[in-house]
Amino acid sequence: PETVSRIFVINAPWLFHRLWRTISSWMPKDTQNKLQILGGDYDKALLEQIEAAALPPSLGGACDSKLAEIPESGKAKNDRFALGPKYQTIQIGARSRQQLPYQVVEN
């Protein structure tokens, strides 16, 4: 948390809020102030801190970048970063293995 400016937690369950209150009491005030827990009416609070052009529409903003798109399924698309059809992003979970084919090309 020391390297970030601000963290917003949106629609967190009540248990998270309770745990944060307990854990944050052991942290310095500066660190505590970096995290802001927002309920269902988060739009206004986010727009007070972040420009609408930098927020995706799903969070009340107007950013039209492909990186801001959040699929309805909640899962990232294979080409989420618009790298093109030759590239694919993958996620490798803890204690998992993944083999990736690659080709070394000499220049």
Average per-residue pLDDT, rounded, comes to 78
What spatial form do the alpha-carbon principal axes imply?
A: extended
Radius of gyration in whole Å, from Cα?
A: 19 Å
Strand order of the largest sheet: 1-2
Low-pLDDT segments: none
Biggest beta sheet attributes: 2 strands, parallel
Tally the beta strands.
Answer: 2
How many DSSP helices?
3
Label the structural class.
alpha+beta
Q: What assembly state would you assign to the polypeptide chains in this entry?
A: single chain
Element order, helices and strands? EHHEH
* Helix percentage range: 10-25%
**Percentage of residues in DSSP E strands:** 5-15%
End-to-end CA span: 43 Å
SSE blueprint:
Blueprint: E1 7-10, H1 14-24, H2 29-34, E2 35-38, H3 42-49
Describe the model.
The chain is an alpha+beta fold and 107 residues long. The protein is 23% helix and 7% strand. The protein has three helices and two strands, in the order βααβα. It has helices at residues 14-24, 29-34, 42-49, and strands spanning 7-10, 35-38. It has a two-stranded parallel ribbon. The mean pLDDT is 78.
Brief overview, please?
This protein is of the alpha+beta class and 107 residues long. It has helices spanning 14-24, 29-34, 42-49, and strands at residues 7-10, 35-38.
Annotation keywords:
about 110 residues; alpha+beta; extended
